[in-house]
Amino acid sequence: LKGYKLPPGGKVVRKLDKLYEGKAKIVYTTDQPGLLIQYFKDSATAFNGKKKGTIEGKGAANVRISAYLFEILEKAGIKTHYHRLLTEREMLIDRLEMIPLEAIVRNIAAGSLSERLGYEEGRRLKKPIVEFYYKRDDLGDPLLACQHVLELGLVDGVQFQQLRTLSLQVNDVLQPLFAERGLELVDFKLEFGFRDSEIILGDEISPDTCRLWDKKTGERLDKDRFRRDLRRVEEAYQEVLKRLASS
Ligand code: TMP
Ligand code: ASP
């Protein structure tokens, strides 16, 4: 067993069993009720797991990028599952009852939105769009309309609106933050869960789950480099970390 010091008072949290292993992270239980450890891997997948690979240093970069962004969001009054960093690849988080939805916020057309609407990549949207996808690998994570979400019973109507509002609030915090670092926040994915009956932001926010374009050069500094077989994938993650850390 590995113990980590928890400030203040030096309380130690111990990692227990693997609870869940996903494509990019592993979640472990701890000896503290309601607290989990999220471990960030270097492995990467795309296109519903059809493309697989390793991005050296990704886990260590993403855990720090996520921690930094969660701290900023908390300061802005948005509740997240994040407690603190524990090691180079691990963060302590609240246990949430996850909602099997991916909330995507888009500021600029790219990826599947470009295909759906026939917009060239890079076209700015009139206002941010929020979409919900059903987290079901066997169905290929389909796009859902509000009524589909309600039919599935994943949340009620009030909670659906809360998910939309929270997603847009996150955008309102993150878009200017990245802009100050010379990065365009093109789009990003969020996952939410329940802590008691309250909706809390979970999962991660990193170049795996955001599209980030250099404002000057238009260079992609995110997982699209892996998805689209571009060079310098590792460097992109390090560059985002560097820009966030240097202020
Ligand atoms: P998309 O254009 O492929 O729909 O992706 C939109 C955004 O969501 C992009 O920033 C990448 C992110 N994303 C994930 O984090 N996980 C996923 O499984 C998918 C499909 C997209
Ligand atoms: N990681 C996801 C998958 O493998 C998709 C993606 O991020 O492109 O399905």
How would you characterize this protein structure?
This protein has helices at 58-75, 111-117, 146-152, 157-180, 224-227, 233-245, and strands at 3-6, 11-21, 25-30, 35-40, 43-46, 51-54, 82-85, 90-94, 97-98, 101-108, 124-134, 143-144, 183-190, 192-195, 198-201, 210-214. It is of the alpha+beta class. The strands form 4 sheets. Strands 1-2-3-4-8-7 form a 6-stranded antiparallel sheet. Helix 1 runs parallel beside helix 6. The model has no long low-confidence stretch (mean pLDDT 95). Thymidine-5'-phosphate (TMP) binds at residues 104, 110-113, 141, 187-189, 209-211.
Summarize, please.
30% of the residues lie in helices and 36% in strands. The chain has helices at 58-75, 111-117, 146-152, 157-180, 224-227, 233-245, and strands at 3-6, 11-21, 25-30, 35-40, 43-46, 51-54, 82-85, 90-94, 97-98, 101-108, 124-134, 143-144, 183-190, 192-195, 198-201, 210-214.
What is the general shape?
globular
Q: Roughly what fraction of the amino acids lie in strands?
A: 35-45%
Bound ligand species: thymidine-5'-phosphate, aspartic acid
- What is the succession of H and E elements? EEEEEEHEEEEHEEHHEEEEHH
Number of helices: 6
User: How do the strands of the widest beta sheet line up side by side?
Assistant: 1-2-3-4-8-7
Total DSSP E strands: 16
Assign the structural class, choosing from mainly alpha, mainly beta, alpha/beta, alpha+beta, or little secondary structure. alpha+beta
Q: In terms of per-residue confidence, which ranges show pLDDT below 50 for 5 or more consecutive residues?
A: none
Query: If you compute it from the alpha carbons, what radius of gyration comes out, rounded to the nearest whole angstrom?
Result: 18 Å
What number is the mean pLDDT?
95
- Helix percent reads 25-40%
Alpha carbon gap, first and last residue: 36 Å
- Largest sheet at a glance? 6 strands, antiparallel
